[in-house]
Amino acid sequence: MKSYYLLFAMFAGMFPASVFGSYEPTVMRFVAKAAMSADNDSLIAKSDTLGEITVMAAPVTRYDDHLLLYPTKEQRRHASNGFDVMKNMMIPGVDVDAKGGSISAFGAKATIYVNGLPADVNDIRMMRPKDIERIEYYDVPTGKYSRDKLAVNFVAKEYRYGGYVMADASQTIGFNSGNYNASATLNYGDMTYSVFAGGGYSDIGGISSDVTEVFRLPSGDVRRTRSVVRDTERNNEYGQFRLRFRRNKTSITSYIGLSRSALPSSAEHGTMTDAGAVSESFSRTSQSGLSPYMGVSGEHSWNGNQILTFQAGGSYSRNKYSRSYAERDFTTLADSKENAVDFNLKTDYTRYGRKWSATAMASYNCGIFDSEYTGTYASSNHLWMSDLEVLMSGRYFLNSRLSIRGLAGASLLTYNHRGTDKYTYLSPAVNLQLQYRTRHGMLSWGSFYTEPSYGASEMSDERMDVDKYMVVQGVPRRHRPKYLSSSLYYSGQFGRLGVSLMTQHTFSHNYFASVYYAEDEKVVRSNRSDSDMYSGYVGASATYTFSKRLTVSGSASFTHTNVHAGVGKHDNSVTGSASLNWYLKDFSLQPYLVLRSRKLVPSSMQMLVSPLSYGLKATYRHKNLYVALNTGMPFNDWKQHVWLDTPAYSLDNETCSRGNSRYLSVSVSYSFDFGRRVERDAAAVHIKFAAVVHIHAAAVVCRVFSDAAAVQIKNRVRCASVYLAVCGRTYVFMFFVNFLFLFIFIIMSFF
Fold first, then answer.
1. Which residue among 151, 233, 248, 431 is the one 20 to 30 A from 117 at the CA level?
2. How far apart are CA 34 and CA 10, in angstroms?
3. Could you tell me whether strands 470-473 and 522-547 are parallel, antiparallel, or unpaired per DSSP bridges?
4. pLDDT at 615 over 90
5. Would you give the DSSP letter of residue 142?
6. Coil, helix or strand at residue 89
7. How many beta carbons lie within 10 A of that of residue 658, not counting itself?
8. What pLDDT is attached to residue 456?
9. Average pLDDT of 25-36?
10. Cβ burial 207-223 (10 Å sphere, 16+ → b, else e)
11. How confident is the model over 336-347, as a mean pLDDT?
12. Which of 555, 574, 572 is nearest to 501 (CA)?
């Protein structure tokens, strides 16, 4: 059957798009889905299905609502994970933060998927580049991605048997920081078993700040200068076990994991000049969090034109925070303990017609936060939040080039603060979008209106001393926010030149912004929810490919921001960046440059100036070994400047951070496959021993579990033993891996 789909796809590709007329969007979509149907077999990479025939595609292809990206051999080789692969492709307008684990474009963050199912950062970090068949970048999301601003779907190869082990380590020289991770994946028929764990730490000392503050109090102005040196320690650990089932048109993934983060100590020692008197100040902050979590997601399609997806998950967090501050004649202590429970449920149904598509979306989120504050001020806070959202999205093709998309719905928001203060209101959301396919790309206009919900921090009204003159106060009064945005976006490919242009205008009424006012010989820093904010943005990005070994990219942007929060502030900022990828057989060089930037941060009302930054990444790849050297600003200190001026408070702060300059990072990753080659000669040696040992293990399990469960386990182990036996060279390793997963399965069966 797949051969007929392939022949039809090749036949259709001989004719221009105009031949299909208005039927082109649907027909071509069905052809693509059919050619990649059962078990997500790829049109490109499944040599076992197509024999020696390989169908090649352009590196970047524009479809109706997304870009289809095919990484080149060099882009895969000089990458250690999925983030690196997409960064190497240098898609115009797309910013990939491989270190932080995020993908964004023109200020909007993308939601990440793997084979159409929701994924987290660790999934992409543990993804081997050679397993990535293609990447789908939805810059105008439709269908099951309609609720996302942007969406990136990594389409990975599907293996029936075998697996791999992967490990990576990163260590920074210049300051003490490192990350270490390991993962293992086992494919057996319809099941995929994955486990990964890792951790990181940083110990950065000598972060210096020169701070000048002016407190305009009722008794008169107080000018204070501080020279502060801060030493910060951080560490985090995580682990996750994942099961995936896939058969025909159904895919289900379940996971359970545990994460821990801690700030053992962040200590500051400063010298202070206050009203002519010189003294010292000391501050120490520590915090920790432990969070177990679990979830399940799945997808089912039928009739070639219907898709149902679902996602459910929950987590529990135990968080602690402690801060102490002391200066002459003043001391303050603050401790807090928080228990947080979060649960979410989502489901989407999409149906495709000849010239249309429609999606129904529903989601429910619930969070419970219980906090207790002790120290100088003692209080407690209990918050229950829920959000029930129902959305409808549809798209209609007016002709082969022009389509219209609409989204409408509402969410029912409920807040129960301290068990007495209850807020409930309906928040609408409307989105209208026109899309026109040009000869070389796509032009899209969109307008979006919503009334976003509050976060847990915005619902708190707790009061806390910062120092002798500063107090932090929660939001005493809340107004319903309103958000309106309009944008014009173009993406095109002109041979070797790729371009992306965007202009966006955003207006927010009842915006949350910081305010400062004097009260009882102190300055109170709080938030007001009746501010207005306007932002205008114009950005352009381009990528030019000289050859398969050399690609350059550049971007430039202009932003105007205007905020009215008691006082008015506005700013115009211009910035840009440039980067280059140069591949030299086993080596690559990737220099980058980011121009100085200045921007007004609307939420804090502060002006933030970041310096010009530059760096270089050099990589080496040999078979499964990957080594990368990364340096940032080796000849300059990274200094960030922040200033603020209000009627009650002024701030001028210059910070020099060692974590952003004069460092060298060394990263090493290695992976190896097992069980993907059949060694028949070796099989004869191992098969008898494997069968006896594994069946004996199953018999032991039979004594623990019920008869029905025991039979199932025994059959699985019997099949696994035969399979493991034919993997001659990797049998020893697989023997231990099999028992590891068997042990995990037994433990999980008790829960």
1. 431
2. 13
3. parallel
4. yes
5. -
6. helix
7. 16
8. 62
9. 34
10. bbbebebbbbbeeeebe
11. 94
12. 555
For residue 630, pLDDT over 90 is answered with yes
* Residue with the two structure tokens 């997601």: 297
HEC string of 3-63 equals HHHHHHHHHHCCCCHHHHHHHHHHHHHHHHHHHCCHHHCCCCCCHHHHCCCCCCCCCEEEC
Residue 226 lies inside a defined structural domain of this protein: no
Six-digit token pair at 518?
A: 């004097």
Structure tokens at 729: 């060279």
CA angle 540, 545, 550 (to 5 degrees): 120
Provide the CB-side half-sphere exposure for 118 (13 A, CA). 20
Residue 724 lies in a domain: yes
Provide the H-helix boundaries in 36-146: 47-50, 73-77, 82-89, 121-125
The structural domain count of the chain equals: 1
Q: Give the list of residues 6+ apart from residue 610 with CB closer than 8 angstroms, or none.
A: 596, 597, 598, 640
What is the rounded (10 degree) CA torsion for 365, 293, 263, 120? -80
HSE, CB side, 13 Å, CA atoms: give it for residue 702.
13
pLDDT mean over 77-86: 93
Looking at the domain assignment, is residue 731 inside a domain? Answer: yes
Q: What is the DSSP letter of 190?
A: T
DSSP state of 722: H
Q: Which two tokens stand for residue 66?
A: 């997304």
Residue type, 420: T
Number of residues that this document lists for the chain: 751
Which of 13-17, 174-178, 714-718 has the least mean pLDDT? 13-17
Residue 107 has a pLDDT of: 82
Q: Is 241 exposed, middle or buried (0-12, 13-18, 19+ CB in 10 A)?
A: buried
Report which of 302, 244, 306, 6 is spatially closest to residue 115, judged by C-alpha positions.
244
Please state whether beta strands 67-69 and 638-645 pair in parallel, antiparallel, or not at all (unpaired): unpaired
Residue 157 tokens read as: 């190869």
List Cβ neighbours of 228 (8 Å cut-off, separation of 6 or more).
208, 209, 210, 211, 268, 269, 270, 281
Q: What is the pLDDT of residues 189-200, one digit of tens each?
A: 999 999 999 999
Residue 715 vs residues 371, 693, 722, 731: alpha-carbon distances, Å = 50, 14, 11, 20
* Sign of the dihedral defined by the CA atoms of residues 452, 457, 461, 464, in that order: negative
Domain that holds residue 718: 677-749
Question: 136: which 2 tokens?
Answer: 């789908």
Residue written as token pair 């979008």: 433
Amino acid letter, 63: Y
| CA atoms within 13 A of residue 106's CA, in its CB half-sphere | 25
| Token reading at 472 | 């932090």
Residue that the structure tokens 């149907």 belong to: 37
DSSP 193: E
The structure tokens listed for 656 are 């020099």
List Cβ<8 Å contacts ≥24 apart for 573-582: 573/597, 573/598, 573/599, 573/600, 578/552, 578/553, 578/554, 579/90, 579/552, 579/553, 579/554, 580/550, 580/551, 580/552, 580/553, 581/88, 581/90, 581/550, 581/551, 581/552, 582/549, 582/550
Residue 668 within a domain: no
Q: Identity (one letter) of the amino acid at 26?
A: T
Please say whether the beta carbons of 415 and 422 come within 8 A.
yes
Per-residue confidence (pLDDT) for residue 459, from 0 to 100: 65
pTM of the prediction? 0.78
Question: What does each C-alpha distance from 133 to 40, 57, 139, 663 come to in angstroms?
Answer: 11, 12, 19, 34
